Amino acid sequence: MSYGRGRGRGGGLQVRDADGNVMVAATGEPPLFPTVDRMPEAPQIDEADLALLVRRHRLESKVKKSCYFLELPKDSQGVAVDIARYSDRYTRMTAQPERQALHTFMKFEPKYFPAELLPQGRGRGRGRG
């Protein structure tokens, strides 16, 4: 027997137990989970935990309104676009960010950039022998 490898059509793989007997799939409905008599109690939130939650909410809102936060583009229904499609190229994106542009916060001056990124002087002419 080929046991599903080699020649022939079908053949099928047979699952065997430790004794070598062929195991047959059980038919019928699977057993149900036991019923839960009572749900676990909700944790108690004290003032310190509540203050942490408020701080976290404020921090998240500041980060999302920051000019450094990058959003995924959204389509006309407001759903985030994961794949850029050809048909999306010609439709306008309606969602505009509620934050200011980056150039309002950052000055684009040469002293803020490394020398490798700045344009160098004119340099030498072409192949002067």
Question: How would you characterize this protein structure?
Answer:
This protein has 129 residues and is mostly loops. 15% of the residues lie in helices and 0% in strands. The longest helix has 19 residues. The protein is extended, with a radius of gyration of 33 Å.
> How much helix, percentage-wise, in residues?
10-25%
Task: State the end-to-end CA separation.
Answer: 79 Å
The major beta sheet can be summarized as: none
Q: Order of SSEs, N→C? A: H
Present the secondary structure layout.
Blueprint: H1 47-65
Quick structural overview:
With 129 residues, the protein is largely without helices or strands. The chain has one helix spanning 47-65.
Features:
129 residues, little secondary structure, 1 helix, 15% helix, extended
